[in-house]
Amino acid sequence: MNTFTPEAASADIGVYGLGVMGANLARNLARNGYRTAVFNRTLARTERLMAAHGGGTEGVFVPSESLDDFVASLVRPRVAIIMVQAGVATDEAMKQLAEHMEAGDIIVDCGNSLFSDTVRRERWARERGLHFVGAGVSGGEEGALWGPSIMPGGTRESYDRLGPMFEKISAHYQGEPCCTHVGADGAGHFVKMVHNGIEYADMQVIAEAYNLLREGLGLAPAAIADIFAQWNQGELNSYLMEITVEVLRQVDADTGVPLVDLIVDQASQKGTGKWTVQTALDLAVPVTGIGEATFARGASCSLPQRAAARGLEGSASAIEVADEDVAAFVEDVRQALFASKVVAYSQGFDEITAGADAFGWQIDKGALAKIWRAGCIIRAGFLDDIASAYEADPDLPLLLAAGPFAQRFQECVPSLRRIVALSAMAGVPAPVFSSSLSYFDQIRAQRLPAALIQGQRDFFGSHTYARIDKPGVFHTLWATEGRAEEQWS
Known about the structure:
By secondary structure, this protein is of the alpha/beta class. The protein contains 19 helices and eleven strands.
């Protein structure tokens, strides 16, 4: 006997995959007034969801035991959200749904899929008359339940059907939904990928600030939490600062030791930071802060290398801060942290710009900054300024140089230089602080040593070069007496 007998064509939207994220997203939809079909290949998960939340107090769920019943329960044009593991599982779920769907129906992937997979899937679905939407969803488990930031790609037609529902269940900031149509095919998952890359850099540089305060002042985690809580009241206000305060204040119940001191110092990753860096390399975009943050996680997990290096002398002196200089040191760390965060966001938006150009997406970067102001992991106070900068100039070439940031960043530079120099002299690793300063110095330089590199390339590979004093493409016979020059075009 069937456990569930769903009514045909009665559900506004469906969720296939009822892990924590899928179940929470389904509950969010139902709570917001949408009749929500739910299905999981393992029936027990559907039964648990219905037992815990199916009484009607959270809205209406339409549960199914079979995929046939699940699809049949959806109102046309059908909308089915996939919430399964990225990769092969997503491909399989998509194909299973497609077998039961009709032209005009919509399949939505709300997982962390690689954007190029989404481009491929959207093409596959389009050939069958279906819409496929890759939607980035940020906010974690709580966000999925109470209001995430949602970044859907796909066709405009699919957004006309899906968008009003996503906008209603998303987080809201000053009355505005944190959801917008990002662009065609893989655009939604692309910007979610870069979002996660920025997240990597932001987390790493907060950790570097913590480490400097601990190494330089010998402060306990709870004392650093108090400093961070104060910073979070100003321009550094962000979700990540907020949760860092809570992490640093947590004390282990059994030992009375700050919990952060008991956590193994190895940071894991699921791949989105790596994808961000790999894609940036393909696009020739320097996302150095994100890259260093990703490599820092790799270094933390390089156990044989770390063990072998522990006996090496770094010829470094400890950070020594005189009592009268403590306040100035703390302020230098704060300013350096703000500057490095701005670099991470600036580089991330550069990658989004390059991706939009390369793949033909019309991405509104001002609208994107707005939907990151609530619900998502990288929500921060200065996203209002980022949104304003791109609204004033949609073709802004460098966020770092925009009106809201240029002067403030330059005010931070002396502090960033002092912190990077002090870290280097003391042997305290600060890869994102250091790379942020190097990036700034590179990007503002009137002339870079790349001229020498281009000369080297022409010497060994006849790669040619351009000149500053006349047009054309040139090659020099470097090893020939007189070093004859040839103009190739």
